UniProtKB/TrEMBL annotation:
Keywords: Amino-acid biosynthesis, Aromatic amino acid biosynthesis, NADP, Oxidoreductase. Residues 7-89 form the Shikimate dehydrogenase substrate binding N-terminal domain. It comes from the Bacteria. It is an enzyme of class 1 (oxidoreductase). It comes from Arenimonas metalli CF5-1. This is Shikimate dehydrogenase (NADP(+)). InterPro entries: Aminoacid_DH-like_N_sf, NAD(P)-bd_dom_sf, SDH_C, Shikimate_DH, Shikimate_DH-bd_N, Shikimate_DH_fam, Shikm_DH/Glu-tRNA_Rdtase. Pathway: Metabolic intermediate biosynthesis; chorismate biosynthesis; chorismate from D-erythrose 4-phosphate and phosphoenolpyruvate: step 4/7.
Length: 280
């Protein structure tokens, strides 16, 4: 029987997840259907229960529903609980279990695919929404030295820092403090500010020479921050396409018990993105 899987988002029509999971299912010889379901914030909970009613076995959750998804789960993995955000739902009996594979996906992409060493880094994390919450615990577990969280709404940065529970390594600052923060050897953009804005205005001196710059978005949404990072002298500069593929592989493993190979799918998507100069 074909099992039912989906990605919930808003908007979600251009999500690459259906393509990635179709490739994984083919590779592993598993029959599964994976569709994109657009649900507004107000409709998210009812859309997820309607999906369960028609036999939904698992789902990915993307922007802007990751924190909302955590609230629907009767059980959360340790990393989802620490993140306060869920990107992977698994149906167990009549309940949803929630996990978060974003952080693992990011760390695998940076350390595995790109061969980077994250240990001892002084990291600036821009944003404190679902995406930031998903990756922060994994960055700490990967051995970074300090995490500085800056968010437009400072209360959300403080809430994330509290949830991480490591006051010796995790600090928050106001957006207005950025010019005085010194410099970082890793800067992660986890805001959605690139979507729809031409400019990314940050002081160049935030970046140490050859700082690692990472945007959790990909395609057009990643362009403003990565253009800033180039002007600031960051090297390497990495978008979220590899993380997307790696988090998908982790989700696939949660549902099916086997982790697919990611290199081929990543190479295909990267070639396509480069050809278009955008990918979404
Ligand atoms: P996601 O799941 O992608 O994290 P989200 O939970 O809606 O989506 O979070 C979006 C993040 O981008 C938040 O940190 C948001 O800041 P606020 O918490 O102050 O809303 C940030 N963000 C969005 N647009 C922004 C902008 N124009 N400038 C700065 N930060 C922005």
């Amino acid at each position: 029987m074909t099992a039912h899987y989906a990605v919930f988002g808003h908007p979600v029509a251009h999500s690459l997840s259906p393509r990635i999971h179709a490739a994984f299912a083919k590779q592993m010889g598993i029959a599964m259907e994976y569709v994109a379901i657009d649900a507004s914030p107000a409709d998210f909970a009812s859309a997820v229960s309607a999906f369960a009613t028609v036999g939904g076995r698992g789902a990915n959750v993307t922007l802007p529903h990751k924190e909302r998804a955590a609230a629907l789960c009767s059980q959360l993995s340790e990393r989802a609980r620490r993140a306060g955000a869920v990107n992977t739902l698994k149906r167990v009996g009549l309940q949803w279990h929630g996990d978060n594979t974003d952080g693992e996906g990011l760390v695998r992409d940076l350390t595995g695919r790109h061969g980077l060493d994250l240990r001892a880094r002084r990291v600036l994390l821009l944003g404190a929404g679902g995406a930031a919450r998903g990756v922060a615990p994994a960055l700490l577990d990967a051995g970074i030295q300090e995490l500085w969280i800056v968010n437009r709404t400072p209360e959300k940065a403080d809430a994330l820092a509290d949830a991480l529970g490591q006051p010796d390594r995790v600090h928050t600052r106001y957006l207005a403090d950025l010019p005085n923060l010194g410099n970082y050897d890793m800067i992660v953009n986890a805001t959605s500010a690139g979507r729809g804005e031409a400019d990314f205005k940050l002081p160049f001196r935030l970046a140490e020479a050859r700082a690692l710059a990472v945007d959790l978005s990909y395609g057009e949404a990643a362009i403003p921050f990565l253009a800033w990072a180039q002007a600031a002298g960051c090297e390497p500069r990495i978008d979220g396409l590899g993380m997307l593929v790696e988090q998908a592989a982790e989700s696939f493993a949660i549902w099916h018990g086997q982790r697919p190979e990611t290199d081929e799918v990543y190479a295909e998507l990267r070639a396509h993105a480069d050809a278009l100069h955008t990918a979404d």
